[in-house]
Design brief:
The protein is about 40% helix and about 20% strand. By secondary structure, the protein is α/β, with parallel strands linked by helices. The chain contains twelve helices and 13 strands. The relative contact order is 0.15. Strand 5, helix 4 and strand 6 form a beta-alpha-beta unit. The strands form two sheets. The chain has a seven-stranded mixed sheet, with helices on both faces. The protein has a six-stranded mixed sheet with strand order 9-11-10-8-12-13. It starts with a strand and ends with a helix. Helix 1 runs antiparallel to helix 2 and helix 7 crosses helix 8. It has two domains: about 160 residues, Rossmann fold (3-Layer(aba) Sandwich); about 160 residues, Dihydrodipicolinate Reductase, domain 2 (2-Layer Sandwich), CATH 3.30.360.10. Bound molecules: NADP nicotinamide-adenine-dinucleotide phosphate.
């Protein structure tokens, strides 16, 4: 199966590393682009050579070529879209994904932007064209929660989804709880360790978690909800005193996303939880609890970000497309 990768940052590099280290998967790289260059070869490109070139020159291919040339070439079966997230417009990924789906190519993405902006439209386009749109890596990094909802638990009715969906916030809350750090101290530490962006607004105000909750809710119940439908409270106003009060009751505080159509609930907010609760997890981990009619409660927990961890989710999507579509053609 031929793969084109748009974006060669942490995630794109992770994907290329796996393609290089696991040739037995049968995933052949035929196109790769970053913001200033691209490389296309329908005969196949050695992933390690691309990684070396990017490291030496900060370009993955020829200057003057771009993602658009790869999309025009059509020399791929699946587009892997891993450019930066723009939650407001979804661009440039939205244009890339529309183009790939519209010309009959499968798409795998880790980019929340296009799903926040146009999930329903993109699913309809994929259906019309008889191709797949997969996005496991957009929520919970390595955790296969989308696969659990759409495949493993497919015969279930889902009552609710509850989760720790942002590792930066979970790290800050863990450190405030464990060490009595103030919010500002814990945030500074998270920045120093590379767990928080220079501008952490999206994370600490709950917006990143809310976008992930929207993706989960639309996947689970096909609600067509957007970020505007989510009630959002971040952790930036949280004091050490609030955590101390929770600790007095043998509880702690976590930023929790909750969706339940039955209860009219679509909310991201700090919640007081008993320490024994399955969603009280440490550090940058993520967790999602699915409440269902047949399976009862299923909780998935794991690394919510990272180059290779996110690549794991993308490779899972690629192989599920290969198994479902490509080999039976
Ligand atoms: N990092 C994670 O752990 C993680 C986890 C889950 C989801 N995600 C999501 O996955 C996506 C990628 O994340 P990342 O951490 O790899 O981002 P990143 O390190 O910022 O890399 C983004 C890459 O996209 C390239 N790019 C920008 N505009 C482009 C364009 N118009 N055409 C082609 N390439 C373009 C950049 O090119 P240059 O190299 O030339 O700048 C860069 O290589 C984001 O949407 C992110 O939210 C990330």
């Amino acid at each position: 199966m031929r793969i084109a990768v748009l974006g060669l940052g942490a995630v794109g590099k992770g994907v290329l590393r796996v393609l290089g280290e696991k040739p037995e998967l049968g995933l052949v790289l035929t196109g790769v682009a970053d913001s200033t260059s691209a490389w296309i070869d329908p005969a196949g490109i050695d992933p390690q050579t691309v990684l070396d070139r990017k490291c030496e020159t900060n370009r993955c291919g020829s200057e003057g070529r771009s993602a658009a040339d790869i999309l025009d070439s059509g020399a791929y079966d699946v587009l892997v879209e891993v450019t930066p997230t723009n939650a407001a417009t979804g661009e440039p990924a939205l244009t890339h994904i529309r183009r790939a789906l519209g010309t009959g190519h499968h798409v795998v993405t880790s980019n929340k932007g296009p799903l926040a902006a146009a999930h329903t439209e993109l699913e309809e386009l994929a259906r019309e064209q008889g191709v797949a749109l997969r996005y496991e890596a957009t929520v919970g990094g390595a955790i296969p929660v989308i696969h659990a909802i759409t495949r493993g638990l497919i015969g279930n009715k889902f009552h609710s989804i509850t989760g720790v969906l942002n590792g930066t916030c979970n790290y800050i809350l863990t450190r405030m709880d464990d060490e009595g750090l103030t919010y500002e101290q814990a945030l500074a530490e998270a920045r120093q360790l590379g767990y928080a962006e220079a501008d952490p607004t999206y994370d600490v105000r709950g917006i990143d978690a809310a976008i992930k909750l929207v993706i989960l809710a639309n996947t689970c119940w096909n609600l067509g909800v957007t970020l505007d439908d989510v009630s959002i409270t971040g952790i930036d106003g949280l004091t050490v005193d609030a955590l101390r009060l929770a600790a007095d009751q043998d509880c702690t505080i976590r930023l929790i996303g909750e969706a339940s159509p039955e209860r009219g609930l679509l909310r991201v907010a700090p919640r007081v939880l008993p320490r024994s609760h399955p969603l009280v997890i440490e550090g940058t981990l993520n967790a999602v609890m699915l409440s269902t009619d047949l399976a009862g409660e299923v909780t998935l927990m794991g690394r919510g970000a990272g180059s290779i961890e996110t690549a794991s989710a993308i490779i899972g999507d690629l192989l599920s497309i290969r198994d479902r579509f490509v080999e039976c053609r």
